[in-house]
């Protein structure tokens, strides 16, 4: 980072983290951390990638809608596309990009080292970053689900399948964001590790071995959707219970905050990155 940029970051962080009397202002610190996250995450390359993932299920929906009555059952189509293109692809990739980009860039240019030497609590830095990634992932995933559903069925929403998956990807997005933010703080190859998790663990192992369903964010997402819709498609049957899924997602969030904060107390910046 150039000297003017570093000075601006330091000035903004000092102003946010201290009132005139000295105590930490969590709200102001959160504002600075969000602005830093936005600046490091929202790049042209990531914007193009996220836009492509956002529009992919909608393109399939347009093809389906163009065929009219020949397309078949819209509920079955939506469940399959939501599972394959949103839950298994778009949502985890959104979370991976949003959860790893900011920490990785700041570890490279030294901003993270400065942040952890301020009076800002380490748990608060991690919490804000997790929430930033979670909200962004949930927002983008919900748009993908809602847009696809509107194209296929309009505002009718048979069996409540679009509403169910919209709420489900909010929880799934938060869980993925927590997991990948923690990964960014504990390994130098967070992006590679995240892709391996998505492709190998979620894409192959969790669909092959039923016991792994209880440790799969994708399966937790489907369990939430199954509890909110009357649709009985195959992917919505036989997964973990709603209670187990909610406990799993909450556990990942708490672990991300606790272990992430612990990593920042004794930061080894060489292990943080993409």
Outline the structure in words.
The chain is globular. It has one domain. Helix 6 (122-153) runs antiparallel to helix 10 (242-265). The chain has helices at residues 3-17, 26-41, 44-66, 74-109, 111-116, 122-153, 161-186, 190-208, 217-228, 242-265. It is built from 10 helices and no strands. It starts with a helix and ends in a 9-residue tail after the last helix. It has 274 residues and is mainly α.
How would you concisely characterize the structure shown here?
This protein has 274 residues and is mainly α. Helices cover 76% and strands 0% of the residues.
Search tags:
mainly alpha, disordered N terminus, 274 residues, globular, 10 helices
Query: What is the number of E strands?
Result: 0
Question: Proportion of β residues?
Answer: under 5%
> What is the domain tally?
1
Please bin the fraction of helical residues: over 70%
Integer-rounded radius of gyration: 20 Å
Shape, principal axes of CA atoms: globular
How would you classify the helix and strand content by structural class? mainly alpha
Give the overall pLDDT as a whole number.
84
- Return residue spans where pLDDT drops below 50 for at least 5 consecutive residues: 1-10, 12-22
Q: Separation of termini?
A: 18 Å
Tally of DSSP helical segments: 10
Largest sheet: none
- Tell me the series of helices and strands, N- to C-terminal: HHHHHHHHHH
